[in-house]
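Entry for arginine complex. Fields follow.
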Amino acid sequence: MKNKNKAIWGTRFNKTTSKIFEKIGASIDIDKRLYEEDILGSIIHTKMLTKQKIIDKKKGNKIINGLKKIRNEIKNNKFKFNKKYEDIHLNIEKRLFKIIGSDAGYLHIARSRNDQVITDFKLWIKKASREMINRLNDLNKSFLKKAINNIQTIMPGFTHLKNAQPISFAHYLLAYIEMFKRDKKRFISNIDYINECPLGVGALAGTSYKIDRNFTSKKLGFKKPTNNSIDTVSDRDFVLDFLSTASICAMHISRFAEELIIWNSDIVKLIQIDDKMLTGSSIMPQKKNPDPAELIRGRAGKNFGALQAMLTTMKGLPLSYYKDMQEDKALAFDSYDTLLESIILTNELVKNLKPNKKRMFSLSNEGHTTATDFADYLVQNNGLSFRNAYKISAKLVNYAEKNKKKLNQLKFDEVTKIKNNLNKKVMNVFDVTNSVNLKTSYGGTSTKNIKKMISKLKKEFK
Ligand code: ARG
């Protein structure tokens, strides 16, 4: 083995690494994405070592300047990553030797790749979570805008995909805003959980050097150093939190995508999607297919898969560091890339969809969607119990169904045949717009409520 290509840990090794193991064992193609975090961690670590007089200032500065040079090389695509040096940590260290010579050997005092890698990764996941939060904010703004333009758009609300009760399209859109707000909160609270700095716990036991972990923790933007060196290098909860939050968010947008696909179908025709977000068929000239929505729906599987893979990797793994855990980065990066694109694509979809207002309105009159309103009327105006009112309303639905009429097509004397002692005003309950506006309970679909909620959200998203 030629000395210049020797692994940093190669002192006691006299054989070249097996080719297939080198290929699988090297994570550089994946973890080079952590270079900024890795260099920042090394610079702060070096500053701490000099502050604590563990290495002298001159060496410290030399190391820091070398690291900055490497950062520029990587940024400008001038750095040659080498699989022989396994990962980002050793690629950088090896290069540092090339640039500043043997003083590079002082950098790795009082640390191990085990604490180094999770310091880098925690910093990266914090950054990635912030990016998710920003994109979710953008998405919510688009949903809000669409909601503002559709306060008076009446549609049937569904349960079991059967027409249930009339709702405002805006209210439906605001429902997704609530989901994305919860996703945001989860990303935010993950950042809080992540906020303990691993750097300085070494391989697993801590170190005999008089290091200052509070200094490195503070400089790297963490709240405090981690408490237990063994737990620190064993812990991948922060990866699982990220993957789980990403999965829940992917699940939310997959539900939206699915609804768009159904609503855009020729059977339902509730919405139109702009040509920008549709594709044609290679054989059927008439086709316009909602592929982007299908991709969003399908790709959620990748997010769930990453979570499942990581849980399985961690299950039963003894403390502390094992190479099993190296796979965590590919999973997190892939989940991040997938979800980020899906969120951006969903944003485009929202902007490019148009409700078929007429169709929505007429469909909201189908399926006797105001039957519950009639029952409620009888409770509120005729002193009936809800169960009795329910039975009478069911009779009215039976009558309407038999006579092939919608509830809003019934005449007053037809209604009084089912229930006597009624005021003419009862006929208002069969009006779907009226039905929507009666739902004034907090969180309900009335126009008044929606307007209030919209102005609250407007302030929130400013
Ligand atoms: N590339 C490794 C990883 O991501 C870094 C830690 C290596 N530590 C070790 N003892 N082999 O897990």
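NOTE: The mean pLDDT is 96.
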